[in-house]
Every structure is written in structure tokens, then in C-alpha cells.
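ugh finaly. both done.
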Amino acid sequence: MRQLLLLSLVGLGAQLVDGSLGMAYGVTSTTLLLAIGTNPAAASATVHLAEIGTTLMSGAAHWKFGNVDWAVVAKIGIPGAVGAFLGATFLSNLSTEVAAPLMAIILLSLGVYVLARFTALGLPTSRLGTPLRKRFLGPLGLVAGFVDATGGGGWGPVGTPAILASGRLEPRKTIGSIDTSEFLVAVAASVGFVLGIGSAGVNYAWVAALLIGGVIAAPVAAWLVRHIPPRVLGAAVGGLIVLTNTRTLLRSDWIDAPDGIRAVFYVVISVIWAGAVAYSFSQHRRHRDGERRLVAAGQVTDHSPSDTPRRDSGATDS
């Protein structure tokens, strides 16, 4: 019972992060399941089955708050579903000895990326431009879906920054569209895992626990997308993912590091993690204060969920 309650809280926290940043539900949840000894394919299958419900609820909430671009959902979601099915099939055919450290490496890489990106950049403000094209979103969805299924997460960490970097879709619609299209990815990955490992490999009580927590958090996260500091939250989650998956790798048969070496790694990562969160918080406050000064001077007309102030386009662009 205690384990199910913990999983529900993890699902709630992971969905709050995912719905606010457009990433990290799968990475966070899968990391925990691996840490308690779950088979990699079963862990990813469990998370994706739960995501069918959480992404459906999250997409509906984002749609209600006007955070969804349906053209982007279709262009990236369908290729993403194909990639997820292929990734699930690939992971299902790997042995546990190979799959566990491989998944840990993927998750660790995503964690490092999330930690570095949000510590250094926060969630940057886009400049709106021409519509996103299929030739960009199609390959992006295919790769992100494959990584998501094989790594137990990755749809958001791969898709969200790429769309933000394109400068063609505002941050809240990027996050809402990625979260909504993830429903297609979750369904396709789940089908792939059921065909690959069978339903007997999945603990449906764990699925229900993650689902309940995620469903509760989804509408809250959609509302909070404009109100929480993404830079701080992203740095905190990234550090947790790095620490947990480093632990998995150091204890794997590939490395099997001595206790003393493990302790050194844990201390170093913890110090870097704490420093990253502190720096992110200070930068968030600095940008927030800067935006307030611009508002007082009449140079800003609206607010972005980013940590970067946005000037009135009419005052700065020709």
C-alpha cells in the first residue's frame, strides 16, 4: 500500500513537471521504477500505459486553456506514434542485462540535457513566425517517439526544446501541443510493449497508481504553465534524473563500481545539482525583476512563461 501511495505521488509530481515544462513525466517515472528493480521493458510499458490516461487528461486541460496548436499535434504526433511502436518493439527484444544499463544511459543523457538547458537558458521566449512544416516535425516526431519508448521517456526532452528553438510557436502552445500529441505516442508504445512482452509483464496496480496521480495533476499543471518558474523546476528535475540514473549505472554489471567510488560520484553530482538549482533561482529572480522594470517603463505589454523578458514587438521590430 505504501509503495502504491508513493507511486501515486510520483505520478502527481511528474505530471506537474511535464504539464508545466512539456517534458519529464516518463523520464521521472521510469527512473523510479528502474530504481526499485523493475524490468526495463516492463517499466517503460507501465509508464506508457499510465500515460494514455494522463496525456488524454493533460491534452484536454491544455486545450481548455488555449495551449494547443492542432496542426502541430497532427504533424508530430503521427510520426511519433510510429517511432514509439518501433522503439517498444526494439526494447522488448533486448535482454534485461543489456536493456537496464542502456536505458539508464539514455535517461542519464536526457537528465544532463534538461539540467544544463534549464540552468543555462531557462525556457526561452519564442519569436512567432511561419507555421512549422512536416519536413521538420515528421523526422522530429519519429526520433522522439523512438527515444521515448526505448528510454521510458524522452518525447518532451527531445520535442519541446526543438520546437522552441525553431522560434515559430509560443512556449505555452509548444508545451500544450507536445503534451497533447504524446497521447498518440503513449498508445502506440503500449501496443508495441503488449505485443512484445505480453500483458503479464506489467503491474496494473502500478499503472493505476501512476495514472491517478497524473490525472489529478494534469489540469493543475495546465493552469500553472504561466505561473511557475520553469528554470528552477527544470534544473531540480534534471539533477534528480542524473543522480538516480548514475546510481543505476554504477551498480550495473557493466561497471559495478566500489562503494567508495559511488559515494564520490553521488557527492559531486549533489553539489553540482544544488549549485544549479541555486543559480537557476537567482537567474529567475533577476529576469523577473528586469521584466517588472520594463513593465513600469511601458516597454512590455504581455507576459511569457519564460524566464526571459519579452519586449513589445511593436516597439522593437520594424
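ok and the 2nd:
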Amino acid sequence: MLGPVTETLSIRALNRATLARQLLLAREAVSVAEAVGRLCGMQAQEPKPPFLGLWTRLDGFAASDLHAALHDRSLVRATMMRATLHLMTDADYTAFRTAMQPMLDGALRVLGDRAKGLDLDVVVPAARSLLQEGPRTFNEMRALLQEQFPDVNDRALGYAVRLCVPLVMVPTEDRWGFPRTSQFTLADTWLGTPPAADAAMDELMLRYLAAYGPASAADAQTWSGLPGTGEALDRLRPSLRPFADDKGRELFDLPDAPRPDEDTPAPARFLPEFDSLVLAHADRRRVIADEHRPSLTTKNLRVRAVFLWDGFARGIWETEYKRKVATLRLRPFEPLPRDAVESLTVEGEALLRFLEPDAKETVVAVADEG
């Protein structure tokens, strides 16, 4: 139970605290590697969204900055939290990949009957041997593994390798850093060092709070996909500051982390598809109201791009480029005030210039709410 002196944080206070850590109260002039480190990774299920996510957070961001960090290996794209692809710093990937393994092992359960005959003790070394010969696409990996294990489902073989062998994706000169069908290589080969032997769960929780706090154990579990977040936060309790949310649930935070006043202005911002901010908490009211949350994901589980006004997700957005005209369409959840439309239009035009630098015209259009 919470003690009587525990401070209660409103939804707006949680919103501003999280936005401050997510570089969304003001663009900051830091390197892309420092930004990704402060965010403790960026969801990168597709290659394009991190470019937009960094553009909306960094002062003077250029796509070449992210390309350079991928090619100098200070950033990697690899399977991490929730068994999804993330952009991570080389140091964070090395430090926290081992902590992810229990969750990744558990994800194999989705294979069901397709896992018949799958023996990780022989498949994993076989996959490592193939990848030591050089980077390969997963189409190539499945075919080669199927030759060695003809009685095992090829998709099960590929999925097991994705989850149980630490891999990174090999960047290219494609516009968004990776082709549609990317090659993978062994993480220890690419980075020159294997993942840390220790799981570093406590350090991971501290980094989560630095990027997304104040937060509950359930929030941390939602973000990471890992069990045991509550036990780690209990171990860390003496060094953390407790809070309560508006429903009396216990939240944890770093004592010196930024917690701006809830009335701190929050600028109009556009978040890309799959942005980690909208996926990092069990209770997402600090970003999006419960009644709008069903609009966040499509039937095939794509996480839509949202725009922020006064710090909260107020609708979804999409772009179109035809005949040298770049169009951004806003689909608000509810009618927007005039000053919101004006601010979003200015920000949206800048976004279009980043996305489509060759456009002769940019158009920001607001659709009917819903």
C-alpha cells in the first residue's frame, strides 16, 4: 500500500514528464546515438519510422545523420523489446540483449504444432555457422536450414533463429537505411563483442524510467514484454521516488528526473507509425485517451501515426505524394480548435518538406473527425 505522504500525479503531469524525457517538449541539439540512448531504443518494425521519430525530436536532424550512425555501427536495428525490431545504441544492445532472452524464448510458444522436431540445441549452432560465412536474408537462412533439418517447418526454423540468435540487420544506402528484404548478421561479428553475460534487469528498469517514467511495474512489463519488472523495481525501491497516479496505483521514478509543471506548453508534434511513446505503458492515458485507443491500431496490428496537440494524441495522420504535390491529411478524433490547426499546419508543412524535398507544393488538410 502507498503511504499517506505519497504525491499523486495527474494525467497531465505524467504527460509532461514523459514528453520531457521523449524530447517532445522542445527539439534538442544532440546526436542521433545520444537521442536513441536517451529514449532507450526506438521501435523500428519498419525502417522509415525512426527517421521521422528523430526528425520530430531533434534540432537540425538530417536523414544522413541516421545513415551515418547505422553504418558506423553506433546504432543497430535488431529484435529487442516485445520481440519486435528496435533501433538501439551499440552499448544498449550489448548490455540488454541477454535480459530479453527469457521473453524471446517464451515467444516461441506461438509456433504451436509448427515447432514439432525443433531442437534449439542443434538449430542455433547450425544457424550461427551459416551466418559466420557472411550476412544472409531470412529467405536464404530458411532454405539453408531446411536442407539440414528437412523434417522441421521452415518458418519455425526461421522464427527460432530470429529469437534465439543475437542478430542485427545490415544497413544499406537505401533511402530509409534498409531494403525491403534485409540481410542479417551475427551481433558479435558486427559489433566486435558478444551480448553481456548478465541480464542487467535492474539497469534496464532504471533506463526505462529515465525514458518513460514515472511508471508502474505493469507499464515496464508492457514496454519490455518481460516478466519480473515488479521484482526489479522492488529491489531498486530504496533509490527510487514513489508516486501515485489518479487511480492510486504505485508509480516509480528516478529522484532527479524531469517532471515539468503540468501546464508547461507542449508543441504540435507528429509521431510516426509504431512510435515507442504510444506503446510504452499499460495505462496509456498520459498519451492517448482510452476512448481513442482503439483507433491506434489497424486490424492487421499496424500502429498508426498520431499527431500531438497540447501533449496528447488528438488524431492520426497520413501522407500522399502525387505529381510533385505532397499532402498531409489529419484525421482528428474530435474537432480541433483553430490554434491547433494553425500550429499543426506549420509543423506539418515542415514534415512534408523533410519527407518529400522535391515537392513543388505542400498541402496540409484536416479531414472530418473520427
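summary for the 2nd one i guess: The two ends are 40 Å apart (CA to CA).
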